[in-house]
Amino acid sequence: MKLAVAGKGGVGKTTLTAWLGDYLARQGRSPWLVDADTALSLGSALGLPAEALPTPLIRDEALIRERVGKGFINLNPDVSDLPDRLRVRLGDINLLVMGSVAGAGGGCACEANALLKSLLAHLLLDRDQCLLVDLEAGVEHLGRGTVAAVDGLIVTAEPSWRSLSVAGQVATMAAELGLTRQVLVLNRAQSPITLPALAGLPPLAAIIPPLSSLADRQLTSPSVLHLPQQDVVDRICRDILSALETRLAPEAEEGVQPPSPR
Asked: Considering the entire predicted model, what is its pTM?
């Protein structure tokens, strides 16, 4: 299973990626989590101390130059050894911190972009593993050559017009690339809710209510795991994965909404 998580900045997609990774690890799946966002906060969300956070691939100029070169660059560098070389183990979770060209600073990003895209393509196309990718708001990391390997897109949003508009744009962009297997997760919302008629919004898979234990935790720690409301978090993860399985089932009819979150 290979999933991508996208959405407007600040809507909770990194938190959701961490929750799903932790849930799958407890199900014996040994997931790989890829931080491909500008904020680079997935490691801290998983509880990794600041001193243990790895250097993001986007900032490793020596490695980029070694694999891609400079000036006349190699657009198809060998990256087969990088996942195991660069990963950080957190129990049964494998964390790989890539970053995004958007957060790489000034100057030409051609070399870094070539390495990032090659590594993500390798993870999606050449390796058989449980994979979760925390993406930027857009889907720029996913090209037509790699999108077919993604089993589903989880679009995260908050209950606001702006957030849902971005969610619709992201989902539409992904669909144009061929990734039509999508679900919507609404964060910091109360059920029931009526969504606006915005183009591109995927079927609603889960609603994440405001969690007091998460709000309290964030005042003292960046970690989002092992909350007192773990039963709520686990139910949300189950609902999302169940909705994706429904969307992936051969007999599933296009446009059928998954069961409403409880």
From this structure: 0.90
